Amino acid sequence: MPDDKSDRSPWYWLLLVPVVIPLMTFLYNADEPRLFGFPLFYWLQMAFIALGVATTTLVYRMTRRRP
Amino acid sequence: MNGHTTELVIFTLLFLVVSGMGFVAARWRRPKDIESLHEWGLGGRNFGSWITWFLVGGDLYTAYTFVAVPALVFGAGALGFYALPYTVVVYPLVFLVLARMWSVSHVHGFVTPADFVRARFGSPTLALVIALTGLVATMPYIALQLVGIEAVLKAMGITGHLPIIIAFAILAAYTYQSGLRAPALIAFVKDTLIYIVILAAVIYIPAKLGGWGSIFDAAKAKFDASPNPADGITLTAANQLQYITLAFGSALALFLYPHSLTGVLASKNRGVIKRNMAALPAYSFLLGLIALLGFMAIAAGTKPVIGATGKPDTNTIIPRLFDQMFPDWFTGIAYAAVGIGALVPAAIMSIAAANLFTRNIYREYLNKQATDAQEAKVSKLVSLVVKVGAVLCILLLDPQFSIDLQLIGGVIILQTLPAVALGLYTRWFHRGGLIAGWAAGLAAGMWMLYLIPNPANGKAHFGGSAFALKNLGLDTPMTIYAGFLALAVNLVVSVLATLAFRAAKVAEGEDATSRDDYFADEGDPRVKELDLSAAH
Questions:
Q1: B275–A60: do the CB atoms touch at under 8 Å?
Q2: Which member of B46, B50, B237, B411 has the greatest number of CB atoms within 10 A?
Q3: DSSP string of B213-282?
Q4: Which PROSITE patterns has this protein been placed in (chain B) (predicted)?
Q5: Nearest CB to B89; choose among A12, A22, A64
Q6: For residue range B482-527, what is the model confidence (pLDDT) as tens digits?
């Protein structure tokens, strides 16, 4: 089969980033510094949503099959 | 009346409008023939990005989530926030897996995960095991949606069971009538209401309580004063591993639930799924904000409704917070959002459960020559039976029992991962090995859950999902998610048993799928034209 039919692309490895980072509790398990009153624990984990969206969108765009 | 008249009127009005939509949905996107299972159960499989986003979102973020997650944060603090990393991690994790599932399902006409397993491993027995696991895991989930509605009704001072029965009778009637179209259409309303309510809540309530900083400070003061060492606004040394494994384990489990797959398979092509994996985290943001309502309730000094047993019902915390903070008319809208939020997932779950029964039990064992029309008829009837069963669960059993079952459900659905998710990538496992692994994982999971007490409500067994590692003889206060450990047992046994079966030359099943099936997309001649209702 031609390569464009398979699910192989180096871009897909990037998907590991938003899977692994949000599970590393030492990155965010603290009260300070606060942002708008939110402890680090809460605002940084909310920020990881943006990381997930950005990475997934990038991977989708880079691996999209062109008609 | 009881001082909740305005709330009650608005709640009832919105509920009725939505129910009307449910019945009209049968005519939405004009199916020519709703009498086949694909048509009724998967909505014709032609949903585009927007509908899929609402449908899958409405399905995964349920009324129970909206009530239970903040209740957990209210009681335990940071640990309850696991729902956020869980829903961040899940989408990149399943990005490729679901696209493969979509392709192979569309080439072979699979409707349930058990359909796939049967064809992949040539084993009706393994398929039956997967189907039964799915059914057992889904049933209590449906019952829990009722717990969500009940929490709202209790907060309005309504205690009898009649309103719940009426609500579910309406739900049953329009699902019977419209199939998957009903929840897809209602999901629009549900999500719009939820977004409005939550955005209002996170702007208006902190302003009344002196800002976010003082909300978190109030929560910290409460947890510092409590005797429980595991609570707090950050994690402790003992529950970090629990936090990580619970978030990761829940992420692995989410798309193994048959009802999440139903929404995914109803999408039009692989691109729709991949785009949704990028867009669905918008709900995670919402969920994070909802979780923080638990802290607002602490800062506002909200007290839960005292249940019939004399114990406080923590699920009523958020409805009570709304009642305390919002004007009556807006509280009515907020309650309607939760109530309608229960209907969408309950409908999809009962459809998924019905599909499992019809495809993997009825057609496999009871009526091998079933026609499409017969299948659709059985499916519709089973979906009714499932909903009646859920109502009976709530009426006859302690709601705590449903909550326990749902906890167990999460652990057991994870045991289908080797066959369903790994099966999409590799045919290495032996069907006998997978059954052995499933049984071992299930046994290990039940044993661990049995050993977990809950000091908060005095239960000795099935008190939660945090398994203390000291039960295994390890000298540590750390806990771990029981489902995660059970899955590890499952994988080890699956591998060892596969090697053993192969050494003993036990027959391998036939694999009905081929490599290319996993990449096929819309427009490929092998992708079946199942959608009888071509888009307008």
A1: yes
A2: B411
A3: HHHHHHHHHHHHHSS-TT-BSS--TTTHHHHHHHHHHHHHHHTTSHHHHHHHHTBSSHHHHHHHHHHTHH
A4: NA_SOLUT_SYMP_3
A5: A22
A6: 899 999 999 999 999 999 999 988 888 888 888 888 888 877 777 7
- Give me the mean pLDDT over the A6-35 stretch: 87
Domain borders along chain A are 3-63
Structure tokens at B307: 């249940």
What are the structure tokens assigned to B62, written together?
């349920």
Contact A2, A66 (CB under 8 A): no
Beta bridge partners of B305: B313
Domain boundaries, chain B: 32-402
B523: left (phi over 0), alpha (psi -120 to 50) or beta: left
Of A17, A23, A46, the CB nearest to B288: A46
Contact A65 B216 (CB under 8 A): no
Amino acid code (one letter) for B356: L
- What is the 3 state secondary structure string of B353-414? HHHHHHHHHHHHHHCCCCCHHHHHHHHHHHHHHHHHHHHHHHHHCCHHHHHHHHHHHHHHHH
ipTM score: 0.89
> Is the pLDDT confidence value at B34 over 60?
no
Between CA B85 and CA B197 the distance in angstroms is: 23
DSSP state, residue B457: T
Bridge partners (DSSP) of residue A35 are: A38
